[in-house]
Amino acid sequence: MKWIFIWLNLLLLTGCATYKQSIDEGLSLAKEGNWQAAESKLEGVLDNPQDQLLYYLEIGTLAQNQGDFERSNELLEKADRLSDTFFQDSFSNRSWALLSNPRQSNYRGNGIERVYISHLKSLNYLALAEQATSPSERLKLNDAALVEVRRIDVKLNEIRAQNPSYQDLDEKENQAFYMKALSWLGGFYTGGRDTDQFLYRDDAWARYMEGLQYEMNKEYDDARISYQKSAELYEAGYAKQYALSGLTAERAWLDVIRMMKKGGFSQDEIQQKSTQKLSSTMQDTLQQYHNGDAELVVLEHQGFIPAKSEMTLLLYADTRAYSLVLEPIYAGGRMENNDAFRWFTMVYADINPLNLIANYKAGGAWGTFSGVFTKRIILGSAVWQQLRALKVDGLLNQQPIRVTVPYYQRYTLDNQQPKLQINDVTKTNSLRMTSLADIAFQEQLAQGQRDIYEGLTRELLRSWLAYQITSNVQDEGAALLLNFIGQVAVFASSAADTRNWLTLPAQIRLTREPLAPGKYDPSYTVNKQHFSLGKITLEPNKIKLWNLRNPG
Fold it and tell me: Matching InterPro entries, A to Z (predicted)?
């Protein structure tokens, strides 16, 4: 039993290193636009029960990038079914993850991933409709795309029901002083941080895409409603939360007004909305739309969501303050060190009054200041007595325990202005409509406290089991050797769950250009990347959608 426990931990260490290396290699190929080679690499490493959902997500996305839309939808449909179940974890699955590391549990996904499964599936159906050879087949595929749009609506409504809205956040900000004080006091044991502001509560861009697809199917009233939901979300806080331009809301309002025109609203209503919501520049853009025009819509899915990294913390006991203390170890290059330090101070460091007092008692004025570099978990004397009865204090006094948590290193989005070339005319009216990179980053901020407490519990249990196993060995020399090997194995095999859907784009940019019906040969250039749609014919009152995947 002793050697099995040690061997399993060493095996996990080797497996984790191989897993990360293969994922990095596959992602590097994807960043080069080598979709097929990236699929082959990721397919091999993700083909296991724990990563089943990730397998369908990553391979389904790469299939879409290769133009294999039917296969992409088959894979994404399987992902959709799995994500809806949220994987009812078996006892054995959870227990094994607790004794090993969280990567050994089933990957469960999150809200944004559920929404973007349907987003990509709807784009697949639209692409297949373009290739359809009969009107009936085209209609069937367009209807299937609308089904995915309605699924997006259902999923977003579920997410919205579980999280505070932007209006709720505003009301909290404007509430009476005594309510703010109670909320402040209640945050003592949660790090004093209000994580509500980082939550993924709704998606203005997904709502906008609902409107676009309703418009493509000439369901103008549904399109108006969806565009308006999008515009109101951008205004309420979505644009601010994810560092988007204020023009995103104006763009959505412009499309609301266009749908009002198509839906028979009075000229007074249309003029009032235009004056109220659109700047003079956007009103000029509105005037470029004429009855009978076609429209070219370019969706640029650019870059990749950043991958998570691991931060190592040392856990040790402070018996004087009946506390556990976590202190980060900074490894890697200087940039990685800076990023890890900034993340720790932003998410974990002791900033609430109770922890500041405990740090002061433990180390005077310097102890208070040093709390910026540590996280203290105050247990109290009663809990400490229970730990002592389990001999956990002896374990912590022997050596610190390694706890590993996920975090994001800094990243920058591409800010180059794309150029759409249409018959020798260059257009530069592209807008970043969403940043999936920022959404993922803030989701990790919101769950940071949960990650650290889960990691602490897991590593305490694993170290305590190793300690208990070796403490029962009669031979003193063998016990010392076994204890040393066991603790090294547990220390080295500590890991965080850094899995997420890595082939999602970092951002999505939108370009909409009304054009007279006719033949065109559009091209799109951004940051030295050049894309060509080829020769197309635009028909009156129809939208041509160009779904463009830019890995750069």
Answer: TPR-like_helical_dom_sf
